[in-house]
């Protein structure tokens, strides 16, 4: 997961350096799932999600939604709600930390 955080950081650094390209609407959904019902808890996803959330906020994204430990239906609802918020956005990012989907 560290490589993904590094990639997102590099991507945002390039975007922030190119300010005119970021004049439009930018939205992000960050999900960090550390607790699971049938497998051992993970230590890093919540911390990673917190760091990425702050990164998006510092990059002045218009909407930054941060969710933790979502169950199946909560995940579906979060993605559906985010799709509505992302409609018409110039940049829409979903960051997920946790066990694979």
Instruction: Give the beta-strand count.
Output: 3
* Terminal CA distance: 14 Å
Averaged pLDDT: 84
Count up the helices: 3
Major sheet summary line: 3 strands, parallel
State which percent range the strand residues make up. Answer: 15-25%
Q: Structural class, please?
A: alpha/beta
* Rg, nearest Å: 14 Å
Uncertain spans: none
- Percent helix among the residues? 40-55%
- Side-by-side strand order of the widest sheet: 2-1-3
Walk me through this protein's architecture:
It is a single chain. With 101 residues, the protein is α/β, with parallel strands linked by helices. The chain is built from 3 helices and 3 strands. The protein has a 3-stranded parallel β-sheet, with helices on both faces. Helix 1 packs parallel to helix 2. The radius of gyration is 14 Å and the shape is globular. The mean pLDDT is 84.
Topology:
Elements (H helix, E strand, L loop, with lengths): L1 H16 L8 E7 L11 H15 L4 E6 L3 H15 L4 E7 L4
Parallel strand pairs: 1-2, 1-3
Helix pairs in contact: 1-2
Summarize the structure.
The protein is an alpha/beta fold. The chain is 46% helix and 20% strand.
Which tags fit this structure?
101 residues; alpha/beta; three-stranded parallel β-sheet; 3 strands; 46% helix; globular
